[in-house]
Automatic annotation (TrEMBL), chains A, B:
Residues 9-333 form the FAD/NAD(P)-binding domain. The lineage of its organism: Bacteria, Pseudomonadati, Planctomycetota, Planctomycetia, Planctomycetales. It comes from Caulifigura coniformis. This is NADH:ubiquinone reductase (non-electrogenic). The chain crosses the membrane at residues 375-395. One of its GO terms (molecular function) is NADH dehydrogenase (quinone) (non-electrogenic) activity.
Length: 433, 433
């Protein structure tokens, strides 16, 4: 720790839940914070599926990073992309600039993993960015539009089949919302097709959905989804994805499901920049491309480099893994800031203890599963809880009230007003007509 | 007029103000309406500049066409792109389908005109579509971001110069909003630059801004813009635009203005499909690519083909031209529907009389100019009037209340929350980092 040229320089890579919290927690410390992100906004990822399904607009769940730290005079924001690290000179290498640091916090997040099948990506986009969300929205709405116009029954069935791969919270939320769109939102919009005939499948390789939840909540969730009309298939592997559809395998039975729209919610891996960091630090990444960190979130042998959030793998003293959720990233960001402050003031270094705030997932219209401590419940009250908590965490955004109103409107009218087909098809290269 | 195979088939090309109004006006007539558009939504273009400047989200000013005619059982919607017409067989030729009609209404609108200088388009995008708006938003916000990071004073000045070409309502609104963003919204967001130093120019070839308004309102508008800080330059021609900036000429004085962001609001021409229609109908287009129509909006020699809105040129008996504004297109749509109804019921054919509802333009925060009949006024009350009328015409959208709230919020806080840099650069091909 050599405070260079005045104040100690903390560079934070990534303005997600972990990085932003760390930046804010350092507001009153004697440090100069530089927050680097390749996007100009902080994204509230838990509601991204609402953008993908036309319920909310991108700006409802994104807030400009500069606005968020506007009043924090010791923090500046750089819109830039990190491509490497020089740990000798202690610099983050951007495409067109080098940013020196005394302490580095890397919270660059995760991206999709197709488990080695990169060729599936163009046929089955994942949901991590605003652009992913508008692309999925475009695909879903375009499928209904194309179905209205085709004459072949087989092609119409293919266009009206929607496959969601992976039954974690995102997959469950996507499947639940897709069936609501088909059965309610679009009910009277078409003249030739009946959108309610859409076939929404949720494919999960494991034995239950929402594996991070208690088994009885998984049961409740599967039950609720099936009641809404989703075809939930557990213990089912995806073995191939093409532009025609997906091939799945359950036991020894292989089946090819023609489908125009396939969404990937099955796996994540550490962000690409993690590779450069691991190489620079001389350490290995785990199989999911994450960096294994010490009890204080530093990299082994690099006490000035912290890695938090989805790019890190963290186990507590008892071996329990820190989950890849927003509260864990935020608590890590807060903790790391307190370590930096303690080091600078020569105070005792704190220890990290994760306070699990519980977990929750919506299933669809008016249904959710919630686990808060030992308290588990599902159904409409769980959904209200989910709604309340998500609005609460949107608190930093001016959009909170707008989101609440839009949700209330959507709930009462079954409408989803942000049903726009915009931009070109990024994967298949067919220009918007 | 040969009602074919049952009911009379009316095909409407374009779901803008004119086409949508015509479709709705035919709801109770004994006709089958087919509304064809290449986008799945109706766009409230007068507020597009709010999207381009981060004040509203795209979905706030767009509504799915299918929703708008959901309850109109005699109307179906086709998402498709017209490429030609066969007037022998009476068919609209789409890329993948032919749609037969008994009566055709073409309301395909207008696109930008660069007066023969197509090479300017990539450096100076216009504002006609949602994608134009998000692209302009991306350019404006990126310019400030890049200015924060450059070391050269000249390059910083270039990045902080914004040139709007053309001082009709769109140009005036863009210039007024850009100066508000620079002087208020972004005021405290940066650490190295002072956004208030941005230089916003409004370039107009004619002798006054808002030429469709009375001269004294043009004066008031120019005065208000200058008070806000906009550099208004009248009688100034743009002679060249490159990626470095714009060259303008005033009298004999030519000046090159280095600028990273140039927005085009200077000219429009009829939509491309107008060329195919003119060719099929054997008529000429005017210099702005529009089709000159008869007093009943039909093409000469083609009583079953109506052209309304910005694709048509219409002069009344006294030679007065119908203006290219939303109320004119809507009244034409309503009128054309009544002509079709009268023909089918063998009733007397009505005559068209444009009822001018007045005109208005916002100048910026709390300022506007309004002309209602003989009543002309400007300032804050004019701005409230502008606000009220625009919300009123958004009435068909569920978003009306959301827009009002967002405006109220923006007005009080000076904030513009939809400040997202998204998507790739469509013109210059540099990928989003």
């Amino acid at each position: 720790m050599q405070p260079a040229n005045g104040r100690h320089r903390v560079v934070i890579l990534g303005g997600g839940f972990g990085g932003l919290r760390a930046a804010k927690a350092l507001a009153r410390e004697p440090v100069e914070v530089t927050l680097i992100d390749q996007r100009n906004f902080h994204l509230f990822q838990p509601l991204l599926y609402q953008v993908a399904t036309g319920g909310l607009s991108p700006a409802n769940i994104a807030a400009p990073l500069r606005s968020l730290v506007r009043r924090q005079r010791n923090c500046r924001v750089i819109l830039g992309k990190a491509i490497d690290f020089n740990l000798e000179t202690k610099e983050v290498v951007l495409e067109d600039e080098r940013v020196p640091f005394d302490t580095l916090i890397v919270s660059a997040g995760a991206k999709h993993s197709y488990f080695g099948n990169h060729q599936w990506e163009r046929f089955a986009p994942g949901l991590k960015t605003i652009e992913d969300a508008t692309e999925i929205r475009r695909r879903v709405l375009s499928a209904f539009e194309r179905a209205e116009r085709v004459s072949s029954d087989a092609e119409r069935a293919r266009l009206l089949r929607f496959i969601v791969v992976g039954a974690g919270p995102t997959g469950v939320e996507l499947a639940g919302t897709l069936i609501e769109i088909a059965r309610h939102t679009l009910k009277k919009d078409f003249r030739r097709i009946n959108p309610a005939e859409a076939h929404v499948l949720l494919i999960e390789a494991g034995p239950r959905l929402l594996p991070a939840f208690d088994p009885d909540l998984s049961e409740d969730g599967a039950e609720a989804l099936r009641r809404l009309g989703v075809d939930v298939r557990l213990k089912t592997m995806v073995v191939d994805i093409t532009d025609a559809g997906a091939t799945v395998k359950s036991g020894d039975v292989e089946e090819t499901l023609p489908a125009a729209t396939i969404l990937w919610a099955a796996g994540v891996q550490g962000a690409v920049i993690g590779e450069a960091l691991a190489k620079a630090a001389g350490i290995q990444r785990d199989r999911a491309g994450r960096l294994v960190v010490q009890p204080d979130f530093t990299l082994p042998g690099h006490p000035d480099i912290f890695v938090i959030g989805d790019l890190s793998t963290y186990a507590d003293a008892s071996g329990k893994m820190l989950p890849g959720v927003a509260p864990a990233a935020m608590q890590a960001g807060q903790f790391v800031a307190s370590v930096i402050a303690a080091r600078l003031s020569l105070a005792p270094i704190p220890e990290f203890h994760f306070k699990d705030p519980g977990s929750m997932a919506t299933i669809g219209r008016g249904a959710a599963v919630v686990k808060l401590g030992n308290w588990k419940f599902s159904g409409f009250f769980a959904w209200l809880t989910w709604l309340f908590v998500h609005l609460l965490f949107l608190v930093q955004f001016q959009n909170r009230l707008l989101v609440l109103m839009q949700w209330a409107w959507n709930y009462v009218t079954f409408n989803r007003s942000a049903r726009l087909i915009t931009d070109t098809n990024r994967f298949l290269g067919e220009p918007e007509n």
